[in-house]
Amino acid sequence: MANAKSFDPITLEVMRNAFYSIADEMIVALIRASYSTNIKDRRDTSCAIYTATGDVVVVAQSEIGTPLHLGTMHSAVQSAMKFYPFDQLVEGDAIATNTPYPAGPGHLNDLCLISPIFHKGKLIAITANQAHHVDMGGFAPGSMPFGVHEIFQEGFQIPPIKLFRKGELYDEFWNLISNNVRTPVEVKGDLLAQFAANTVGSKRLNELANKYSVKVIDMYLQEMLNYSERRMKQALKQIPLGNYSYSDFIEGDGIDDKLFKIELDLNVKGDSIIADFSASDDASKGPLNCRWPSVAACVYYVLKAVLDPELPPNAGAYRPIQVKVRDGSLLSAQYPNAVCNANIITTQRIVDCLLGALSSAIPDKVAAASSGTMNLLNIGGVDHRSGIYYNYVETYGGGQGAMHDSDGMDAVQNHMTNTRNAPVESIEVAYPLLVEGYGLVPDSEGAGKFRGGMGLQRKVRVLGPGVSLTLSSDRADVTPWGLFGGHSSAPSSCVIEDDSQETRYLPTKVTTQVESEKIISTVTPGGGGWGNPKERSPEAVLNDVIMGLVSIDRAKSVYGVDIDDKTMTIINRSGT
Questions:
Q1: 51 vs 347: CA distance, rounded Å
Q2: Where in the sequence is the domain holding 401, given as residue range(s)?
Q3: Beta bridge partners of 282
Q4: pLDDT in tens, 222-277
Q5: How far apart are the C-alpha atoms of 190 and 321, rounded to whole Å?
Q6: Could you tell me if 70 and 153 lie in one domain?
Q7: 45-50 and 122-132: which strand pairing?
Q8: Which DSSP string corresponds to 386-414?
């Protein structure tokens, strides 16, 4: 057994896997104990373990957890520690916060619960988790409305506050929360599940401390940080020295229709890097503004994904990375600027800028643009079956961008989100909604030697009285781009239909009312292509046609592959 004065790589690996197992067990406990469809089915939540000084060391490694949560939680923990001396708290205390100001989660729905972990009275670590709650009050169901310009309109703000005391929910403050949200049963159930997850983490960390010692645990936590720092520094050397720039755009903010530019200057210095977004546009009136933690989360995610996908993500890996933003800009909003939809749209565009900049430096490691929006629907109102408020929230996957040697995946959550789709059965049981269509959108890919992924379409009929709908989307005009001759993909769209075939087209960012028996039909963008489409394998084009993903006309006009529609065989390659 190792002691505090010795270190060996075998024990490091044992300890590393022990910590990851604890984080994974935490998130499994949270999901199994949760109440809302958004967490128990869609798994819109993340868990992590921190040192006693607030540095993130371990994040859940199972296929759960979103890069955005895992990046912003670090700042939420640091912010909470400024409010409370954690070594003066006791076992069973937990601090809750949901506000991005001055630093914390990206929007009010993402409530972070932070627990100090004690062993024999000594603070040894911190556990935290973040979960997207289906409602936090505010202007519209789901708490992510458009047409607002201040965070006060978005919902109930919770600065760091001791919500659990010695293992018990602080009833007075819970009463305050419950009177400011539309779905208090779901919020309370998910909140208690969050506390249960941290409790699991406390139990397992104490078992580990009993087996080894507090000093040994701390030593290996620190070594895990140092190890990730070394790996990130080595990974950064893959990028040729120099400056790389890229800019991309967001299509309006729900108030102004103008394009909002995000501009990046990436300065590569060998084993360190500076991502400077200072030239980005000023803050928007509408709720698309970011705070620094969200921007940093995007940078951390892209560098790990592109340079070293197996890199353990933690505060050590962040040390060689500097992120610059300009106060008052879209990416460093000042209180009380509205922020609620930055998670859905702005962060995805930050990723696109990073990938665009890196594509000229290390093209074989970078994908073309993916769908570029989480394409969120919030549908809420009073359930006529029970007389109780409900809110259905879901983000929809789109096409993944192609790479130099592979097609993009179809209809997947990509980049800053890692949630699942809500099963049709869960939606129809929990809400007065009927799913009338769900599938891939043919011909929505960005064509290329390697094609981008397909977008998807879902049609949802409103069964009860009129509801409030918030649509948060993008890439209807400035579509996801291709690389090295690859084409852009098809755009997003959303319409309100009815049985008479009357259609109302919606802008990409809107909060509106939808009447009973109307059908909400949303389409997500595909992913950009890579390389000249005429160089795509004829067999791959034929297979896409057979699968119903690419039409025969498109195969001929875009890919140059003429296919016999009766025999489904290739006539010739040139299409002439």
A1: 27
A2: 367-532
A3: 329
A4: 999 999 999 999 999 999 999 999 999 999 999 999 999 999 999 999 999 999 99
A5: 34
A6: yes
A7: antiparallel
A8: TTEEEEEEEE--BPPPPBTTBPPPSSB--
Q: Are residues 61 and 209 in the same domain?
A: yes
Residues 488/526, Cβ–Cβ less than 8 Å: no
Q: Which amino acid is at 424?
A: V
Give the span between the Cα atoms of 325 and 264, in whole angstroms: 10
Judge if pTM exceeds 0.85.
yes
pLDDT in tens, 321-353: 999 999 999 999 999 999 999 999 999 999 999
193 and 147, same domain (yes or no): yes
pLDDT for res 6: 66
Using alpha carbons, select from 99, 156, 93 the residue that is nearest to residue 127: 93
Q: Is the per-residue pLDDT at 574 higher than 80?
A: no
User: How many domains does the chain contain in total?
Assistant: 3
Closest CA to 22 of 14, 320, 431, 223: 14
Residue where a domain terminates, one of 215, 230, 245: 230
d(Cα 327, Cα 289) in Å, to the nearest integer? 11
pLDDT average, residue stretch 21-25: 95
DSSP states of 313-352: -SHHHHTTEEEE--TTBTTS--TTB--TTIIIIIHHHHHH
The half-sphere exposure of 456 on its side-chain side, counting CA atoms within 13 A, is: 21
Among the candidates 214, 230, 246, a domain finishes at: 230
Maximum separation of any 2 CA atoms in the chain, in Å: 80
Same domain, 168 and 59: yes
Backbone angles phi, psi at 147, to 5 degrees: 90, 5
Tokens coding 273: 């890097």
Locate tokens 């000042």: which residue? Answer: 334
pLDDT tier at 5 (50, 70, 90 boundaries)?
Answer: low
The yes-or-no verdict on residue 211 having pLDDT over 90 is yes
